[in-house]
């Protein structure tokens, strides 16, 4: 029986990162990687872009940046790693420290001995139990593995696909909706929550995103459940929700993924309530000689102190390195935890988030304050200046930033969210951020960085320099009392802007801010004033002036017209 | 005599930021802003882009993002601030707390009383004492003020300008070189230091930038001083350096700026050795009722604990807000200091830096280590993936990052440098950065962020997993001994890459990494091996393998071929 220092089950990013790092730390280690599939080190995150044609060649997703295909030979030549493809590990025996692997082609079984074992068996697509849903249908797919994307791509090439119906608007659902829409396919997207990316972003960003997707032409149905699929001749032809029936040429199930843990379970390793392999801070399972990494585990959330399931390549890579360090260096590196940073491009819109959402902060009983504002990622006079809407969540007890979300067409949300993540993860105090020395030049940013602007706004809000009100709150006010006789909605934009983008509320009056200070406003002095402008900046200035004129009840519509959805 | 709560001298970004913030904090404050010029709140950073035609209208540089021209009326209507333009403050009398202002048109003098005074008199272009240099010449300009850019723009429009000669390759010199080159004008650029941006970036980045500018078509002459200008009929026709004569249709002097401090000096305020107004951490001058802000002061560098002169809009804005807070809130907010972050776009190249340069770290006697590497800002399979070269400087005693510089064509250096700045300014420990939860999705970044990769490389270097050598060091070795019989330069790229971009050193041998492990290398085993590849990644892997084969003296050429200059 062949003996190895380390056996890795699963040749995805986490498993192969572990293997490569092991060899770099000690080239004498004998390493075996076993995988049931054909495509090791496959960049699954690139699949939506391959479907769209932005990635030209399927192999590109398996290549290094210098053009080498990461196949069996590559790992042998590059790092003397043994890679068994198309072998299914059917059993782990922790007592004898062996694994049993089945050759998929020959059906022969082989036994290998390990000193340390790393389980990186990844995840599989969830197929929800919906009446009529048949994963065997020729035109119904999940999108998780290389073979999924191969099947979808050939179906698209060999059939006339003019319409697709997608179930689920999480990260993958939205990405693939965007890719197929950009490929001139009609897209219907169903989501049971009230907005896309609902577990990641809050209502104002989510409904804003929904509006942009809808306006761009994606038929997005939220708060709506598909209750039945109809098939004919091994082809799905129709999805039926509570409200409508949608015919389509192709159907995609993007309902998330769940960890592959069968062999771990069989080996008696501890499994969490959510069904993932339980690990400690060194990524050891309940058996100290067995580590687990990647999509088959949960990781610690630094902000909630609970584990969460985050099957993402960025964690897989980071944790793979850590596992290797811990195997060679005797568990010297604990995993700190993550804060749930995520980013996605949907059509031309960039959306990102980090830290806690408002919902998560509520669930944790944190005493928090939010600011929501809009601005430009670069000076307005530059041609590449893009509008960006940002929501920040602060802990009122510490004034620390605990969450950030942003969205903008072509906007540099990645920069904003990465700086925010660095701030949140390291608990950088609020007043230190006000003085952060971020880079400025017109092709890149504003003289006051758009994220730092949010910290200034929070400072102003905290010091009662203005009171904020959300679009949602105003909508609710109107829904309760359509006349709203005691409320004045004051639009301080220019007449021209007022005409171009009217308020969605009736009865808004327009007094451009230039005339405001010298206007006779006595007739509305005792009313509740809700001021709005394009982004929230002029309305803030207006509220300062009205306060000075003795107005008592003044609210700023946060993010102004830019926040409308 | 008219009395004001606060008088601000200078209507640039710092002065008007102060004034606006003062009014927001307390709208009852009577504020007077006096400026000798015509264009308040002018976005001077946009001037190079206006010259290039990217900013269409001169007025755009004076407008708000919502299109209002920030003139005298704007500040009156928007914030009830009094603005006196074309008035020169000739005297400050700290005893009577008055300023004397001269109306430029009528020559009348006016006296105003202040409770607090803010000096934001800005800076002026330095005109070096060079033989024959006549700032009166019709075609020789500095580029500092709105009137400068107006003059240059009309000269360009009214004359056939096919060539320009620029003195100085600091931020402005490089930006305007880029703008005019992009406008199809031949550019010669002279620099007394050995590379452009020499006070900001180190040699490897600087010479790389120089090569890119040169290859793009800018005639850049470094380490070369212009000793004489030749004029004819009020026009400069020639610049003469130690090595050459350059004729041009237009000449620009970009030799930096110096603070405007004459009236401060006359008023007896303390002036620094470098000639700026001395302030404390609250931005008070030596007279506690007089504050100073913007380009006329120096600011504290957090990393050196010394002041430095950083005449940049981003500091002006931040400090203007701080001064206002301190005036209204009784000096409650100290200025922490800055770390010297800067960014610039030159042609299609983005260059940024933050923290200490290697030179600065040496001057401070810090025990430091550098890593220099190359990579892509996004996965290679994405069409918008751009190469980026990064230099990081770590304090070896703490392992903390203390400096970062990067350059890349169209690359997202702004994101990298902003995260680096956040790390440096807040002394985030090295091991915390290894676990930073930065955003990842293929349109934005790599699964391991390019900056975090540098922290991994530093960890490897610190743990002696490889020894680095710089392009410069190899060049010096060859200069000393052209034969280098005991050295092997081992290129582990593919044969194809080897042919496409040959080594600048003779005798490099090519063994693609795929064949390396199984090659017979006994014949070079006792030599010093310098391994290189495209970016430094494969050479690292190769060095691990050679070490395993018993090689003793192995060096990796940091950043590989991507670092050649």
Explain what you see.
- Two copies of one chain form a homodimer.
- By secondary structure, chain A is α/β, with parallel strands linked by helices.
- Chain A has four domains: about 1-120 and about 260-330, FAD/NAD(P)-binding domain; about 140-255, FAD/NAD(P)-binding domain, CATH 3.50.50.60; about 350-460, FAD/NAD(P)-binding domain (3-Layer(bba) Sandwich), CATH 3.50.50.60; about 470-565, Oxidized Rhodanese, domain 1.
- Helix content of chain A is about 30%, strand content about 25%.
- The first copy, chain A, is built from 16 helices and 29 strands.
- In chain A, strands 1, 2, 3, 4, 5, 6 and 17 form a seven-stranded mixed β-sheet that branches. A five-stranded parallel β-sheet of chain A has the order 8-15-9-10-11.
- In chain A, helix 1 packs parallel to helix 8 (about 315-330).
- The longest helix of chain A is centred in the middle third of the chain and has 16 residues, at about 315-330.
- The mean pLDDT of chain A is about 95.
- The interface between A and B is large, with 108 and 108 residues.
Keywords:
homodimer, 565 residues, alpha/beta, FAD/NAD(P)-binding domain, 4 domains, 7-stranded mixed beta sheet, 5-stranded parallel beta sheet, 16 helices, 29 strands, 28% helix, oxidoreductase activity (chains A, B), FAD (chains A, B), Rhodanese-like_dom (chains A, B)
């Amino acid at each position: 029986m062949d003996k190895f220092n380390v056996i890795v089950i699963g040749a995805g990013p986490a498993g192969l990162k572990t293997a490569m790092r092991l060899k770099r730390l000690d080239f004498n280690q004998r390493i075996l990687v076993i995988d049931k599939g054909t495509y090791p080190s496959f960049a699954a995150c690139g699949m939506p872009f391959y479907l769209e044609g932005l990635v030209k060649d399927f192999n590109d997703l398996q290549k290094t940046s210098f053009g080498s295909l990461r196949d069996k030979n590559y790992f042998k030549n590059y790092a003397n790693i043994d890679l068994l493809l198309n072998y299914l590990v059917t059993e782990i025996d922790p007592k004898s420290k062996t694994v049993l692997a089945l050759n998929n082609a020959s059906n022969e079984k082989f036994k290998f001995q390990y000193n340390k074992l790393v389980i990186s068996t990844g995840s599989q697509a969830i197929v929800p139990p919906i009446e009529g849903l048949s994963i065997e249908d020729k035109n119904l797919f999940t999108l998780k593995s290389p073979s999924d994307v191969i099947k979808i791509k050939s179906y698209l090439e060999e059939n006339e696909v003019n319409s697709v119906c997608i179930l689920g608007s999480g990260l993958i659902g939205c990405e693939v909706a965007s890719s197929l829409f950009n490929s001139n396919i009609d897209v219907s997207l169903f989501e049971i929550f009230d907005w896309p990316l609902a577990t990641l972003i809050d209502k104002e960003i989510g409904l804003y995103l929904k509006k942009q997707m809808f306006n761009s032409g994606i038929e997005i149905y939220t708060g709506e459940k598909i209750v039945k699929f109809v098939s004919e001749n091994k082809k799905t032809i129709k999805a039926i929700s509570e409200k409508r029936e949608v015919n389509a040429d192709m159907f995609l199930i993007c309902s998330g993924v769940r960890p592959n843990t069968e062999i771990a379970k069989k080996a008696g390793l501890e499994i969490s309530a959510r069904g993932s392999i339980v690990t400690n801070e060194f990524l050891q399972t309940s058996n100290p000689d067995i580590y687990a990494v990647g999509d088959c585990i949960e990781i610690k959330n630094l902000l909630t102190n609970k584990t969460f399931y985050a099957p993402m390549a960025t964690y897989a890579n980071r944790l793979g390195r850590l596992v290797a360090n811990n195997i060679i260096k005797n568990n010297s590196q604990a995993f700190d935890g993550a804060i749930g940073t995520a980013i996605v491009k949907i059509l031309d819109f960039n959306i990102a988030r980090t830290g806690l959402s408002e919902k998560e902060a509520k669930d944790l009983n944190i005493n928090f304050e939010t600011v929501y504002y809009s601005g430009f990622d670069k000076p307005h006079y530059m041609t590449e200046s893009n509008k960006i809407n940002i929501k920040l969540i602060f802990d009122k007890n510490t004034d620390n930033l605990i969450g950030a979300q942003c969205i903008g067409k072509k906007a540099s949300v990645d920069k904003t969210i990465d700086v925010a993540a660095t701030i949140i993860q390291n608990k950088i105090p609020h007043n230190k951020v006000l003085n952060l020395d971020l880079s400025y030049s017109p092709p890149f940013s504003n003289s006051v960085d758009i994220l730092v602007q949010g910290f200034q706004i929070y400072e102003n809000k905290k010091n009662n320099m203005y009171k904020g009100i959300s679009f949602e709150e105003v909508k609710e006010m109107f829904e309760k009392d359509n006349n709203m006789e005691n409320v004045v909605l004051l639009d301080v934009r220019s007449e021209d802007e007022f005409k171009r983008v009217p308020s969605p509320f009736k009865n808004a009056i327009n007094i451009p801010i230039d005339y405001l200070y010298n206007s006779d406003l006595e007739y509305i002095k005792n009313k509740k004033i809700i001021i709005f402008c394009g982004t929230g900046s002029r309305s803030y200035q207006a509220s300062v002036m009205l306060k000075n004129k003795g107005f008592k009840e003044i609210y700023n519509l946060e993010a102004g017209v830019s926040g409308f959805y």
